[in-house]
Amino acid sequence: MPIDPKRRGIAVRRGFTLAEATLATVLLGMAAAGVLLPFAGGATVQAEGVRRTLGTRLANDLIERIVSTPFDDIVDIYGTRIESQGQVQDASGTPYTDSMYADYSREARCEYVHVPPQSDDAQPGFVLAMVRVAHQGRNVATIYRLISKAVQ
User: Fold this and answer.
1) What is the pLDDT of residue 152?
2) What's the domain count of the chain?
3) What pLDDT, on the 0 to 100 scale, is given for residue 138?
4) Which of 7, 45, 66, 106 pairs with 117 at a CA distance of 20 to 30 A?
5) CB 144 within 8 A of CB 108
6) What parts of the chain have a pLDDT lower than 50?
């Protein structure tokens, strides 16, 4: 039985050529990238939020420790205090062992300040406390607090 030349062309052309398959793969890859990029961006934003939240918690913990210290001892104990990366300490002075704290460092600076109309000769009635927390060397939280002798 002879094969019709028109039909023979149809029978031979079932499937995709290599060029068509490559083009379909490229287009599918571009569409997938367009869908997945917002998810990757969202994960980055979420990770930054977690770092800032934990950094703020660490800063607040140290500020509260400073405020609860007797006024006359604040500058002596916390005048310049640096906890290097991986050495951030809890309230008992023990470094945190949880791995989520490993990339954090913390710094506290406290100094006596005079506020108007207080003269520079008078005994200072305030301490300015600053706590800064960094994650892998990048600042994530800073808290300032003015502590009054009269409040304690």
Assistant:
1) 44
2) 1
3) 94
4) 66
5) no
6) 151-152
